[in-house]
Amino acid sequence: MSLNSLFEHIHQLPSVPAVVGELIASLDNDRISIHRVSATIHKDPSLSLKLLRSANSVRYGVGRNVATIDDALLLLGFDRVRTLVIASGMVGMLKEVPGLDRKAFWRESFMVANLSRTIVRHSQLGDLAPETAFTCGILHHVGSALMHIAHPDVMQRIDALVAQGAPRTELEANRFGYTFSEVGAELGRRWRFPETICNALTYQDKPLDAVPFSPYAAAVHLAIGLYQNIASGRREEHALGEMPREVRRPLALDLLALYEDILQLVRSDDELGVFLD
């Protein structure tokens, strides 16, 4: 099945909530106001309630009751609120996909998102947004959802092999002629996400091929490698030491601070329960 044929199944994939689409598009707008973000979130009562539930959770608790969207924006910060709503909306969108282990899918997505944000936070390059990196991480595997809809049996066979250490991209490219990265990038373009994000999804598996260099693709690539090594039983310190130098060097990372923050992150509680219904 060609990539074009795959997208004949896109109608079986739920639509991205309008508010989520607006917030993702706003990541490319440095001049968007906090009032505009507040007004956008208020358009979706369900996502507003989920935001307040997240803001009042132990994971994000700020020591006082968060009763309104404006409280959340004030106490958690503009960027964090925006990405919490994006994450909540995407989790709610992908509830029932044939053969896709929803909990495992989102556990990986959230860890990759948090690792990507931490990596970019410690980059010494200018003009990078950690919350954009988080969004790229949350979306990094979204193409897999459409592939599970179109190829449920084959994707389950691939999933089983990947769980034992097989390379997903090689198996998908060999079987289909495309991978979840390419599918995710095309979904992003059809959903009118910023090209910065679509580019990161395209090159997450081969960040050094991106011209110009995509720091977000590099961050997601490093985050995926860290997650996979840790999930397979490698000690966190060893996984950090195995980050490919050729990918991390262009990011100009403060390695000491990065290693300290990542060790704290991967040893902290799983935040998935905040988002899963």
Description:
It comes from Salinicola acroporae. This is Signal transduction protein. It holds the Pfam family HDOD. The protein has 277 residues and is mostly helical. Helices cover 65% and strands 0% of the residues. The protein is built from 18 helices and no strands. Helix 7 (102-121) packs antiparallel against helix 17 and helix 12 packs antiparallel against helix 13 (195-203). The longest helix has 20 residues, at 102-121. It is globular, with a radius of gyration of 18 Å. It starts with a helix and ends with a helix. The model has no long low-confidence stretch (mean pLDDT 92).
Helical stretch count? 18
**Radius of gyration from CA coordinates:** 18 Å
Beta-strand percentage? under 5%
> Which ranges are low-confidence, i.e. pLDDT below 50, for 5 or more consecutive residues?
none
| Topology as a string of helices (H) and strands (E) | HHHHHHHHHHHHHHHHHH
Distance between the amino and carboxyl termini: 34 Å
Strands, count: 0
Overall 3D shape: globular
Q: What structural class do the secondary elements suggest? A: mainly alpha
- Largest sheet composition: none
Helical percentage: 55-70%
Instruction: Provide mean pLDDT, rounded.
Output: 92
Protein name: Signal transduction protein
Pfam family, one: HDOD
Organism: Salinicola acroporae
InterPro entries: HDOD, RNase_Y/CdgJ
